[in-house]
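User: Show me an example of a complex going from sequences to structure tokens.

Assistant: Sure. Here are the input components:
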Amino acid sequence: MAPNINPAMMEALQHVKGYIFPNELELQWGILIVIYPYLTGLVAGAFILASLNRVFHIRQIEPIYRLSLLTALAFLVIAPLPLLFHLGHPERALEVIITPHLTSPMAMFGFVYAWYLMVVLLLEIWYDFRADIVGFSKTKTGWLGMVYRILTLGFMDTSEKSLAVDDKMGRIITIIGIPSAILLHGYVGFIFGSIKANPWWGTVLMPVIFIFSAIVSGIALMLVLYVVTGRARNTPIKTECMDAMGKFLFYALVFDFALESLDWFHRFYEAEESIDILVLLVSGKLLFSLVGVQLILGTLIPLTTLGLTQVLEIPKKPRKIMYFWSAILILIGIFAVRWNVVIGGQLFSKSFAGFTTYKPDLIGRESLLVGSILLIMPFIILWVLTRFLPPWRGVGKEISHSS
Amino acid sequence: MIPPQIWRPLGILLAILLIYLGVRSFFVPATFYQYGHFRGNSLATIASRPVQYAGKKACMDCHDTIGEKPYHSKHKTVSCETCHGPSLGHVEDPSQLPSLKPTNKEWCARCHEANNARPKTFPQVVIARHYPDKDCMICHNSKKLEKKP
């Protein structure tokens, strides 16, 4: 033991390698800040998938169109929670909305979020489900019927003409919505990308990579949800829908992978003074989560399996299984992407000469427990939403407004 | 004519926006943007609080020989009220003594516990291994020091 070091410091130093500054010993952004971009990414991805269908009229993915919108909503509702848990003073979040400052990217989140939630998602869902809401408002009784009646906003017309107006409005909102979704998640990438003091984060490619990984994760999530809901509701899982989503997933993943590689080529060629520590980071602390999970498990394996489905004539059944498990791997891989960005960026010292360690707590305000609850909550909300506004049009069993 | 299925939801959004602006104008403190992105009269609020500290100069009017004591001579670079606490009341009425005269180890540890983050030249000891069973002041407030362990 070094003679002039006190025991508490000695204990802490065992988790440290090389030279780090004192304030880098403990990570400021932990597991909850990993979950936050993961959730918003799923929101943006699910929404962009829905928009593809809407704007380009891709008939094959029609069955998951309405489910994607509800999924985006369910995840969006939970998305700010990790931040509030992380900050620990939820009431102070309001001050950022009351007196926002343009130089604070964090302060802008409230507005990006409000815009996306209210102007885009809620309006879009309202126009898409309006006919159903009107239907339910006529048949449901009690407080539930009341909610439906309020949601009709007193407009009960479901004639051809008014449905056409719904459709038109839906399209307009989608067109506003696509850039908004990109803004929402690009903004999350910007929070990291704009930190020029941190070489792992501070690159202009960051928002772009965030958006593409968001699209990838959103499509993967919808593919999984399509299979799971299909199984649960005992409706046929359409091969053409799976094929279309598998194709999108493959190309989105190719794009995402290409962008990430570009980022690395760029870093290597530029070879700034930080490159040595980043290489050490990737080959040491992040070896498992970046090379193992993100690259091999979450990118190369799904790329290969999805690639095979594109070039080979694989029979329906194994093909669907390949889509499904690739999507699961991708969901795990994108989680690793978020982990590597958020945690990786804080593991190395700004002196470029040392590392610290991160181990999340099991219980507590910022812990694995809270993290897992926050990851499960959107699915519970989604389940409630699908009860309230059944999205299963064109999926098999039709909804009846009388049940 | 705009059909109700367009103006009603948009009207609600507009209403939410107006409510936000209303709530905001109600909650933003009156002097918020006066000097910058903070409440202007917070300066006045802070200035109006009662003064607590007298400053080292004031102490030296009466305690000009304190620096001769071994402990105080070592700490001549530290302002008196850092250790003795805010003492304006004592300056105005010397019979009302300063609140603090801390000699316990936890107190010394605040500044002297060995810590790599402190400048190398600053005197530091690992308190747990520097005469753990004795009171710091026995040695450090006398002219005669024993050997450093």
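The lines above are the inputs; the final block is the predicted structure for all two components together. The beta strands of chain A are 17-18, 354-355.
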